[in-house]
Amino acid sequence: MTIRFLTRTEIRNLAKELDFRPRKALGQNFVHDANTLRRIVSASGVTKGDHILEVGPGLGSLTLALLDRGANVTAIEIDSVLADRLPKTIADHSHSEIHRLTVLNRDILGIRCADLTDQPTALVANLPYNIAVPALLHLLAEFPTIRTTMVMVQSEVADRLGAEPGGKDYGVPSVKARFFGNVRRYGTVSPTVFWPIPRVYSGLVRIDRYETSPWPADEAFREQVFELVDIAFAQRRKTLRNAFLEWAGSGNASAERLLAASIDPARRGETLSVVDFVRLLQRSGTAVGEDGATEGVAQSADVH
User: Fold this and answer.
1) How far apart are CA 179 and CA 171, in angstroms?
2) How far apart are the C-alpha atoms of 232 and 170, rounded to whole Å?
3) How many structural domains does the chain have?
């Protein structure tokens, strides 16, 4: 297998050939540094047996690096000009590897399981700032076959995803990502490896889905947990007793539900882990679609 990565000059020439101007709104900054690409792919842990879902392949830099790993790749590209050009670029820079690539000209937020012939086992992507978290959560929910996720996002988004309870960056994305799996920050990427050069640093985040979910993984249960997360973080200065007042029906009922879940009503939302939110829902007696025992969640020590 011989795959040649795109250089900075080649990326600029491709853009010129296509009369293409990168759009900030779509986060169109393309990696031209081969070492950075190898680092991303290596950190993702993908192997020859994986079917990788790539979001926003752009001109094909990361796509080539993923194919170099021997995996099959389905690339979702919203820009029709880039989607049309990608197969030719891959064919020009590889030796008969094009048969392992499928390109779909679609908006990632509209992709469903039925749109893919083969279900992905891994997600690797350079996600634009404006849709990074919605796209990530959508794909983790839509494709339970995704076991490993490696995303490159703006550094502040990476900080939020990787934050622990009580930290200044901890918030809704931190909790919701951990509903699906263990989340780890994998370092920083310099702006200088991109064309055009962005004004901010990027960060790598890896999510490994739980081998066996510690709680019900169906859509109805997930949406109820996420509703509690949204309520708790809507007004950070509120105590949980006051934050959940409307959800529970009264202040006393809110306090009773929190105490039943072994949570101090005086705490604030940013101190709760995903385990706490799940336990609160289960012990409130309002969960729909639940198929597991409450105590099993509270004792899941391997979930971070």
Assistant:
1) 13
2) 12
3) 2
Rounded Cα gap, residues 81 and 176, in angstroms: 34
Global pTM value: 0.92
Residues 155 and 181 in one domain: yes
Whole-angstrom CA distances from 180 to 90, 171, 292 are: 33, 16, 16
Asked if the structure places residue 25 within a domain, the reply is yes
Q: Which range marks the domain in which residue 252 is found?
A: 219-298
Is 279 found in the same domain as 140?
no
3-class state of residue 73 by DSSP: strand
User: Which residue among 166, 189, 209 closes a domain?
Assistant: 209
Q: What is the pLDDT along the chain (304 residues), one digit of tens a residue?
A: 579 999 999 999 999 999 998 887 677 899 999 999 999 999 999 999 999 999 999 999 999 999 999 999 999 999 999 999 999 999 999 988 899 999 999 999 999 999 999 999 999 999 988 899 999 999 999 999 999 999 999 999 999 999 999 999 999 999 999 999 999 999 999 999 999 999 999 999 999 999 999 999 999 999 999 999 999 999 878 999 999 999 999 999 999 999 999 999 999 999 999 999 999 999 999 888 644 444 344 444 345 4
**Maximum Cα interatomic distance, the chain, rounded to a whole number of Å:** 68
CATH number of the domain that residue 120 is part of: 3.40.50.150
Say whether both 76 and 225 belong to one domain: no
**Residues 60 and 139 both lie in one domain:** yes
